[in-house]
């Protein structure tokens, strides 16, 4: 059983590595588009008509995928004073309850995000003329990333991987 849990954890780590590269690519694309937009507007005198929209859609995807990625790394803001002062057993139960609540939230994001995506699929973006399904698809995709990372955190709890919240840098 422990072997399967470790394989699951390894697969989730590979999944997160791919998500990390996707996030880096989205950030790079957004940076290049915004830089080029400023350059084209103020130096060339002819701004691009589509760069703002694509950069905005990239930021939406970056936000939703990044939330799931940061969740697994423990980089999201959290109030963990109760975990610090609770005993070992109670803090373990609290972490499991928090992970299960996050997984429920992710499931809701997937279900209703997909319904929302379906409703707006006939609409098109004004300047690029792409379906609005693509920017709205970030909601269920982010939910999938959160759900997969919730499973990873539950596997960590089952394997007894010590929980270490991120420390602030002074």
From TrEMBL:
It holds the Pfam family DctQ. Keywords: Cell inner membrane, Cell membrane, Membrane, Transmembrane, Transmembrane helix, Transport. It is found in: Cell inner membrane. Residues 30-156 form the Tripartite ATP-independent periplasmic transporters DctQ component domain. Coiled coil: none annotated. The chain crosses the membrane at residues 21-42, 54-71, 92-114, 134-155. InterPro entries: DctQ, TRAP_DctQ. It is a multi-pass membrane protein. It comes from the Bacteria. Part of the tripartite ATP-independent periplasmic (TRAP) transport system. The complex comprises the extracytoplasmic solute receptor protein and the two transmembrane proteins. Belongs to the TRAP transporter small permease family. This is TRAP transporter small permease protein. It comes from Billgrantia ethanolica.
